[in-house]
């Protein structure tokens, strides 16, 4: 059902958090607060507001009465206004400027590209530490204005904004630790390097679902651009086709966590090969694709890496191979062990004073073996008793009394013996 258009922030707030819809709850951990209101306010004691307000998909287009916002939202520190109809930054500013303790603001999927964000408006966001602008189509000019007015901004979300390029800000944002910029169309590494220039303190960079191509940067330059980067997400980077791009991740001096699923380079490898080869090539990481890399797994992966490349010509062996050979020495190839169950066995069939060597299928049943032996021992199947002797068993022959039992379940091997005796009448 479509939400009505033209609703104000205060109108929606009153409806959602009225005592009928959101009754006052007492007790520890409830997070519900009834703030003091200005004398004479018609809203006095009517709303029971939590400190985290979720007003997404409510058709909000404007702020409403600013005095009432200030009266009821003094304690609010998180505000979700995603998927509304806010298209004027001035209206957003009216809301935010009256929420003095606001730290988290979600403006995703509002048509804010339709207006220009002036610095005077952006100043009302000064206390925000986490800002979400996903699918807002916010221009880089808007982002730059925000960055200049938010001195404490730590996390910025710019997903689904159709960015093909990055425009550098005139000033660096030293406070930003996390940038989430997935699902855009950032292909060229020259655009990604601008993010390092703009955000020198960046700890986490999430670039999933971009069409990033090869990492064209020297090792020294990468270290200077991202000196504090601890985590990078390159899921589904469609242009990463060579191991040299993976090796360049080692240039980030503080990198510990990498996510690399769904890239073309890895598609031809098995799941085990992908993980082990990546771990071996990235010696500093402690978490890969969300899973912790234990010390034992690292050693196993590095030894696997040596054996994986040991048969290649010298000119095709990666540099990392030589580093690991220095660490572990040259390893012997692993013995090839066939763990498939044996399909047949050569056994000795003993009947009276006769011995005949036969090859029997182990997938057949005892009854089927008796049919096979009829012509050998000249006995009917109903008059035939079979005994199996394991050459290493200390307990003597075992009667094969169950007609439907498969021969492989006895553990029959080459050299074992089967004794045939007539049934006593």
From TrEMBL:
Gene3D superfamilies given in the database record: Phosphatidylinositol 3-kinase Catalytic Subunit, Chain A, domain 1 (3.10.20.90), Ribonuclease Inhibitor (3.80.10.10)
Xref: SUPFAM superfamilies: L domain-like (SSF52058), Ubiquitin-like (SSF54236)
Membrane spanning stretches: none
Every Ubiquitin-like domain range: 352-421
Domain of life: Eukaryota
Principal location listed in the UniProt entry: cytoplasm
CDD domains, alphabetized: Ubl_TBCEL
Keyword list, A-Z: Coiled coil, Cytoplasm, Cytoskeleton, Leucine-rich repeat, Phosphoprotein, Repeat
Entry's localization field: Cytoplasm, Cytoskeleton
GO CC annotation terms, alphabetical: cytoskeleton
Pfam family, one: Ubiquitin_2
InterPro entries referenced in this protein's UniProt entry, alphabetically: Leu-rich_rpt (IPR001611), LRR_dom_sf (IPR032675), TBCEL_Ubl (IPR047991), Ubiquitin-like_dom (IPR000626), Ubiquitin-like_domsf (IPR029071)
Function statement: Acts as a regulator of tubulin stability.
Official protein name in the record: Leucine-rich repeat-containing protein 51
